[in-house]
Design goal:
Blueprint: E1 2-5, H1 12-15, E2 17-20, E3 30-40, H2 42-49, E4 66-74, E5 85-88, E6 103-107, E7 111-113, H3 120-138, E8 147-150, H4 156-167, E9 171-176, H5 179-188, E10 192-195, H6 201-209, E11 214-219, H7 222-232, E12 233-241, H8 254-258, E13 263-266, H9 274-289, E14 297-301, H10 306-315, E15 321-325
Parallel strand pairs: 8-9, 8-11, 9-10, 11-12, 12-13, 14-15
Antiparallel strand pairs: 1-2, 3-4, 3-6, 3-15, 4-5, 5-7
The structure holds NADP nicotinamide-adenine-dinucleotide phosphate.
């Protein structure tokens, strides 16, 4: 099969190889998926660059967690799912073979039914961004009736967090770094969108949230935004944060948060509780069946251009998902 792989960490253009590899066979409990699309997420490029453990146990890594395709065959103990359209998540979590290939064998539960109306490229966008966003919105309880602040609302995760909060019945205040990104957040369903570069963010959020304050914050840059979160949250408010890349060792405004009984939830999508994954998958399935989620595909590339796709994610420029067609 055609695949992309690397045998050592390093810059994408230096280490990613495009070529032929032996086709995998589904083991017990696994399904073999003929992939149509794979998507690149920041954690895929961080692993490849060497910032996170990649998993070279077999001497090579086929990157990418997320993808979509059709089940080609099943391993022992799996009910017949041949021909089923699926989206695949966590294919390269704790395993060396991900979705940047024509085929991947994964445990059956990592291949979730994809409704017939949903394009494979959209299916490849789902795993990391949509599940992370779902967890960040729901791990503080049901959003109905709450005021939820979503920072970085035009980011891959933030964009879906706006949508989950809105679908769940919250009032959504979004922040983004450009007016165009604010518009993207509004188009995704945010009630208000604020450019965080314009200053006096606390005041502007406070005016929208009113004296009660914000109930819950979904945050892309915990360290940078912690003071703002502490200032705008109500007593017993919550923060769910999935990244702090600009301030990896953040200074926590302890007393402003303590005086408000703030709870900070750290989120990692890969090993979040199984019950949370099940709830996310159920809600995703329902949303896909009803066309209730919008998606943004920023770039579609060929497998030969996998390095370009990785570099694009590293640049932080694409507004949306970066897809590699694997068929
Ligand atoms: N913990 C997990 O399970 C998990 C899951 C997925 C992703 N992540 C991590 O989360 C980060 C974002 O991932 P992504 O795929 O969503 O990336 P992305 O699409 O590049 O989005 C990042 C967003 O952050 C925004 N941003 C930067 N500084 C900000 C600030 N001070 N206030 C508000 N927004 C700010 C940017 O907005 P503007 O361009 O508008 O400024 C950008 O839209 C990455 O570090 C990734 O590794 C973690």
């Amino acid at each position: 099969m055609k695949a992309i792989w690397y045998t050592r960490s390093g810059p994408a253009a230096e280490v990613l190889v495009c070529g032929e590899r032996k086709m995998p066979k589904p083991g017990p409990g696994e399904v073999l998926v003929h992939l149509h699309a794979s998507s690149v997420n920041p954690s895929d490029v961080k692993k490849r660059a060497g910032a996170q453990p990649a998993g070279f146990e077999n001497g090579y890594v086929i990157p990418h967690s997320d993808g979509a395709g059709i089940i080609e065959s099943v391993g022992e103990g799996v009910p017949d799912r041949v021909g089923e359209r699926v989206w695949v998540y966590q294919a390269q979590y704790g395993r060396n073979c991900g979705t940047c290939a024509e085929y991947v064998a994964v445990p059956s539960r990592l291949a979730v039914a994809l409704p017939s109306r949903v394009d494979f490229r959209v299916g490849a966008c789902i795993g990391i961004p949509v599940m992370t966003a779902h967890r960040c919105v729901y791990n503080a309880g049901e959003p109905k009736g709450k005021t939820v602040l979503v920072t970085g609302a035009a980011g891959r995760v933030g964009y879906y967090a706006v949508q989950w909060a809105r679908l769940g019945g919250a009032t959504v205040i979004a922040t983004a770094g450009t007016d165009a990104n604010c518009q993207t957040a509004l188009d995704a369903g945010a009630d208000e969108a604020l450019n965080y570069r314009d200053g006096s963010l606390v005041e502007r959020i406070g005016k929208i949230a009113g004296p009660a304050g914000v109930d819950h914050v979904v945050d892309v840059e915990f360290g940078v935004n912690a003071d703002t979160s502490a200032a705008v949250l109500r007593n017993c408010g919550t923060v769910s944060t999935y990244s702090s890349s600009l301030a990896p060792e953040p200074v926590v405004p302890f007393y402003p948060m303590m005086f408000k009984n703030v709870t900070v939830n750290m989120v990692l999508v890969y090993n979040m509780p199984q019950a949370a994954k099940n709830r996310a998958i159920a809600d995703i399935t329902r949303a896909l069946e009803h066309d209730a989620l919008q998606h943004r595909i920023a770039e579609v590339r060929d497998m030969e251009d996998a390095a370009g796709a990785h570099e694009s994610i590293e640049s932080g420029r694409p507004g949306g998902c970066v897809i590699i067609d694997t068929e």
